[in-house]
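Following up on my earlier thread - several people asked me to post the actual chain instead of describing it. Fair enough. Here it is, all 272 residues.
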Amino acid sequence: MSKIVVKDFHLEYTLSCGQLFRVFKSEDWYYITLRNRILKVRQLSDQLEFCGIDKKSLIHYFALDEPYPDILAQINKDKHIDKAIRKYHGLRILRQDPWECLISFICSSAANIPKIRLNLELLSQFFGREIGLNNFECYTFPNPGELNDYEQILKAKTGFRARYIKAANDQITEKFLSSLKKLPYSDAKKALTQIPGVGDKVADCILLFSLGFTEAFPVDTWIKKIVQKIYFRSRKVSNKEVHEFATNYFGRYAGYAQQYLYMYAKDLTYSK
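Reply from S.P.:
Thanks for posting it. Predicted structure:
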């Protein structure tokens, strides 16, 4: 078992803020599927214990090389975001596998987290292969080109999303996804929204959670409600207005603000 000392990092918050779906907890250990391997990790105070991945890859995946204090200083612009940052300090934006992230958020359309997890697990069972680490077993996530049976995709309870998953499988390559990292944010987003089933919100999720575009600000129901409540005095505005406000207000790390506001919105909802 490998160990690393971490600063300004909270494993549970990072894994429970809606950016990742194929994660499983057993006692104080988390098992995360990374396409064709398993990461086993837990946090004990300022230490991460892990196996299934090397130290360099772990640092990259959890974005432990980001200038975290500077990020918080740039987005901490009012009492609301300050409260969220204080409560959820250590939450990081993951650098997921872009292909798995793409399919995950296509599955997220008009679905809750348990439904998304079910879709992804069934797709992995039908198209992946069984792997294990210690006593934990799961399935690899299929590569581009391997989600090639529409009827099986439907059997994964994906519903109307099945045609989008099949289209992405037929059209998207690893090279295309990697090439997006070299583009400006607006161009990368435009390229992603050409994929069937990928609208603005899904594109921003892919850009933020897998491609390193920390300025991306996905607007879902939770985010729209909290931004309207805090920054528009409960006035109803469009998703576009929410997005434009947030990216201008929070700047290059708007995506971090999005995650803190997401957790803050859930707090307000469940505390009622």
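Residues 98-210 form a domain with the Endonuclease III; domain 1 fold (CATH 1.10.340.30). That should answer part of your original question.
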